[in-house]
Design brief:
The complex is a heterodimer of chains A (247) and B (264). Chain A has 247 residues and is α/β, with parallel strands linked by helices. Chain A is built from 7 helices and 9 strands. Chain A has a 6-stranded mixed β-sheet with strand order 5-6-7-3-8-9, with helices on both faces. A 3-stranded antiparallel β-sheet of chain A has the order 2-1-4, with helices on one face. The model of chain A has no long low-confidence stretch (mean pLDDT 92). In chain B, helix 3 packs antiparallel against helix 8 (164-202) and helix 5 packs across helix 6 (122-147). The chains are: A alpha/beta (247), B mainly alpha (264).
Chain lengths: 247, 264
Amino acid sequence: MPPLLSLSGIAKKFDSGTQAIGRLDLEVADGEFVSLVGPSGCGKSTALRIVAGLLTPDAGTVRFAHGKPALGFVFQEPTLMPWASTLGNVRLPLDLKHMNRAEADDRAARALARVGLGGFEKAYPRELSGGMKMRVSIARALAAEPRLLLMDEPFAALDELTRQALNDDLLRLWAEDALTVIFVTHSVYESTYLSSRVVVMTPRPGRVAADIALSPPPRRDEAYRLTADFTEAAGRVSAALKQAMAA
Amino acid sequence: MRDWATAARYAVPAALGIAAIAFWQWRVRALGISPLVLAAPSDIWAAFLLNFDTLMAALWFTLKITLSAFALATVGGVALAVLFSQSRIVEYALYPYAVVLQVTPVVAIAPLLLIWIGYDHVGTVLVLLAWIIAFFTVLSNTTVGLRSADHNLLDLMKLYGASRWQILWRLQLPGALPYLLAGMKISGGLALIGAVTAEFVAGSGDGLGLGWIITLANRNLDTAEEFAALTLLSTLGIVILFALTALEWALLHRWHESAVKRQG
């Protein structure tokens, strides 16, 4: 079976002349949870935007096995419309597709319930905490029923406990919906905890420095963070990252 | 504690105003200042009652000019700003002329407009002059507001295949609303200033506005009536500002930082 997504020879230079990505090759199979890890400014976010079609690469190709799949995108900031209620925000992708109001409301409410925000439909973003806003942002991505979910350091601005709770929720949603996720982060531990595969990138211009497959544990939960398996895996990712930065 | 603070907000300026009027009344009488130079508050009140019908008709006339100019400025400013946001070329082509319109002293154009539009349509000239003064603030504020849309939200909407119209309607216009309302608050006051100034230079045709009343009262050395008309103008300005502040609160208080009361 061909991979869901394959990037080959992708290069991107910014108007400022900075070479953000240099010859990036990456394949992502259906159902994988792939983390992109690398130093700041290594082009992780740029790669994600290229996959989403928000940026055009200077060279190389982006290929999808079955045509461009339904995409969800979650930014580092919650990126909500402050003038719209929680429900209105989650409904956005459906409204843009002119789905009828009742059905869109229904689907948006279900997406909110799935991220633990049932009952907050009428709240406005400013009334929510940082973690709750991020949950709304994830619900909005889910409402579009994506096959491929792209996440750009979504939990970087959250406190540790909120971040861990959202990590667990994300894994649950990934499993329930059989999603494929590409997750950009600079946290070794987060990538190790979440991913079935960690792709380590070099400093600018970003290329793949290491591609580490992680054996999926039977269940990922709080206890997993304390196991020798987890520590060992995190050690491998960390070593690969150090090597990539030294190279 | 909070009730006390609220009461103080109204009581303190009111007390100051009453004290100032009392001092004014006392000094004018005590020094025997000529009413041609400075009318005492009691004289102004008497002039107000004496000319009540004329003053109210003039107030109505000025209000009509002001509101017409303000409505045109708002609609025109928003429409042009939307056009600018949709086409850079249109913006490059027209913006310099909007600036020219703004920086040209309106008083200087008035005689020309009178010739072109005619002395039998002075009302139109007045509206046009007030509109020129009030228009630019709405245009420039709304233009900035439409351009300030969150870039990530813009990307997200593009990702979901939004049309230009959807981006305008769902993202840019709601995002520009706080800028527009801030512009309208300034523009409302400017429309009033424009209406009165226009009347100074163009007269008021077959109507009679507060600007012309002030001109006439001044020529007649009727300082008391002049002050009465001035007081009405200030009141009108305050009412316009209050109305627009209320509109701003109604539209923004649920979501925008400027209208949100901090809790805790």
